[in-house]
Write a structure and sequence with these properties.
Elements: H1 3-8, H2 13-26, E1 28-33, H3 36-40, H4 49-63, E2 69-71, E3 74-76, H5 83-95, E4 99-105, H6 111-120, E5 125-131, H7 134-143, E6 149-152, H8 155-162, E7 166-170, H9 179-187, E8 193-202, E9 208-214, E10 221-229, H10 230-239, E11 242-254, E12 259-267
Parallel strand pairs: 4-5, 4-7, 5-6, 7-8, 8-10
Antiparallel strand pairs: 1-9, 2-3, 8-12, 9-10, 11-12
Length: 268
């Protein structure tokens, strides 16, 4: 049971609502900055070793069966599935005769893999390949890599060796300084399926740069974060030759300044 769930057991609903508003006013997404560099000056970043250690500690418990589910280093006693994402993964495997080779770009230490492994492990041939920062890859190969879960520091070597049929971008594009340049490179490999999940969007006509402050009970961090213009984002994929199969509401749903969305694309 995580910290929030624990306190909910003892607090009346009106107190819980008050505390949620207080927390949201201090943490979450704030500001509208003119550049990534300007926002970054006010942030601690995402490469803090303490964050890696907390994520590793939590995911090792999941891997070893000591905990059920992890998200953003927080442990839960019940898996919160993204059913559209899982459907997209299984659809990609089905079209590829039951074979699944995933590029999980920015996939941490395997959060999405462990979240869905009950279903993924029913497939005969699975290669789940995560691309991460160098200090993550070092820990990943030491503690998590096995016959199905693999880790790379770049997309080129991963695609060359693994021949993936689906690209997953879950809660990652918004934390990249130049997301469209990264997307340009990723989509140039013409992977059959692309699944975007847990990504903030609005319809204001421009890509907004904010700062996300993480509540300290998760870990102490703050970093720049994009809120993408939905129309621009969809147009980009269409121009790269991808057909939108499905749009869905992601885990956080509708927030004050954005909507948490997901998309499944198929290469024409």
């Amino acid at each position: 049971m995580n910290v929030v769930s624990f306190f909910k057991l003892f607090l009346p609903p009106i107190v819980t609502l008050f505390l949620r508003k207080v927390v949201h006013s201090k943490y979450g997404w704030h500001g509208d900055y003119s550049s990534w560099e300007e926002a970054k000056k006010h942030c601690s970043g995402y490469d803090d070793e303490a964050i890696l250690e907390k994520v590793k500690e939590s995911l090792l418990k999941v891997k070893n069966g000591e905990a059920v589910y992890e998200r953003d280093s927080v442990l839960f006693d019940k898996i919160e599935y993204s059913w559209p994402l899982l459907s997209g993964i299984l659809l990609a495997a089905s079209i590829n005769k039951g074979q699944l080779s995933v590029v999980d770009f920015g996939g941490s230490l395997g959060s999405t893999y462990f979240q869905n492994r009950k279903f993924i492990n029913l497939l005969e041939n699975v290669r789940w390949n995560i691309i991460e920062q160098p200090h993550f890859v070092k820990e990943e190969k030491l503690h998590f890599q096995d016959e199905r879960l693999h880790f790379y520091g770049d997309i080129e070597s991963c695609v060359k060796k693994e021949k993936p049929n689906v690209l997953i971008l879950s809660s990652v594009l918004c934390y990249l300084e130049k997301p469209y340049e990264i997307l340009e490179n990723l989509l140039s490999y013409n992977l059959p399926f692309v699944i975007v999940d847990r990504t903030p969007f609005h319809t204001k006509g421009y890509d907004r740069i904010t700062i996300q402050r993480v509540p300290p009970w998760i870990y102490r961090a703050s970093y720049p974060c994009w809120i993408f213009d939905k129309g621009k984002f969809l147009t980009f994929f269409n121009e790269k030759g991808y057909i939108l199969i499905e749009e869905f509401d992601a885990l956080a749903g509708k927030m004050d300044i954005y909507e948490d969305k997901g998309f499944i694309w198929l290469k024409k």
